[in-house]
Amino acid sequence: MKKLRYALIGCGRISPNHVAAVKQLEQDLEFVAVCDIDNANMQNICESFALDQLGVKRYTDYREMLEKEEIELAAIATPSGEHAAIAAYCLERGVHLIVEKPITLSLAEADGLIELADQNQLVLCVSHQNRFNKSIVKIREAVESGAFGRMLHGTAHVRWNRSQDYYTQAPWRGTWEQDGGALMNQCIHNIDLLRWMLGDEVTEVFAYTDNLHHSYIDAEDLGLAVVKFANGAYGMIEGTTNVFPHNLEETLYLFGETGTVKAGGKSVNVIEEWLFADASEDAEAVKREYGENPPNVYGFGHLPLYRDVVAAVREKRPPAIDGRAGRRALELVLAIYKSAAEGRPVGLPLQECSTLDFKGRFDESNKRR
To answer: What is the CA radius of gyration of the chain?
Structure first.
């Protein structure tokens, strides 16, 4: 079967996960080109994975790359604020896409990408790779089988640490123009999982956000929210980058009439509680079989995500995590921002909202510290 010609746009912190996945799919993907405006970033990734020996070409302009190379599938791993423009350019030229989270920083831009992908019959996947964790796949099976009974509530906690060095290394981080804060950058994976597991359709959000410890960034380092779902379930979200002295945990709890589950570990990659009225599966065996120990918070999900995208392109079907799924995660984060900024509950769906709507939100409090 013909290989898909692949390119990576963006060689920053998450790019090694993309390259590692592509190298394990050499029978499906031909790694044609890599692109970054920073030559040092490209040099690092090319050296780390011996990409020059594979004949992978380097570009500093993705437009030039697409002009000169016949690319069929590209991954966009640039700063978040650049996703929309680069993705639109690729989709207009018939390129299937994997876009790192968040899909964009505004709902209008997300809607535009979804429409472009639909019009051109292209695969648009958003990299919420934790959905492919062995633990999460197992939990989702329990949700879909009805093992929880009626879902009552769930909670998502991301209790991490980000130092000033993290933001100094990449000044786009923590800005409203290019990123957002802890919820948009660090917590959106778990927010996506909570929404997905509890029924997807959200009717109302009430939230607080603040910048308590990172006066050198524009956006929040703490977010607390209560989420009401259309099916009657409730969700609670706690996300922070203030935990001393290093990352503590990322956990997802789900509580139903007949089931309780806790996923934890570095990236909700282990099952810590597995309790169901139907005790046909041994809980300890489930915990052993469906736990992983990834080297970092990014987990092992990129490889199965790539496999799914390759299959989606060949089978002419939507990917497991499509643009609409990415938009739902974005919408919930933006609804939290909006509720916190306006001091009131916010109803969903949201039609228009962007991180730029909250520019200047913490400026005065940051000045006082």
So the answer is: 20
User: What's the rounded Cα separation, in Å, for the pair 270 and 265?
Assistant: 6
Average the pLDDT over 146-154 and give the result: 98
Can you tell me which residue has the tokens 């510290």?
A: 369
Name the 3-class secondary structure at 4: strand
DSSP-assigned letter for residue 140: H
The pTM (predicted TM-score) of the whole model is 0.96
Beta bridge partners of 346: 205
Q: Label residue 180 by pLDDT band (50, 70, 90).
A: very high
3-state SS, residue 274:
strand
Structure tokens at 81: 């604020």
The domains of the chain, with CATH numbers, are: 4-130+300-322 (3.40.50.720), 131-296+329-368 (3.30.360.10)
Distance CA 350, CA 369 (A): 34
Tell me the C-alpha distance between 44 and 275, whole Å. Answer: 46
Structure tokens at 358: 């909250």
Indicate if the pLDDT at residue 335 is higher than 60: yes
Closest CA to 325 of 344, 305, 307: 305
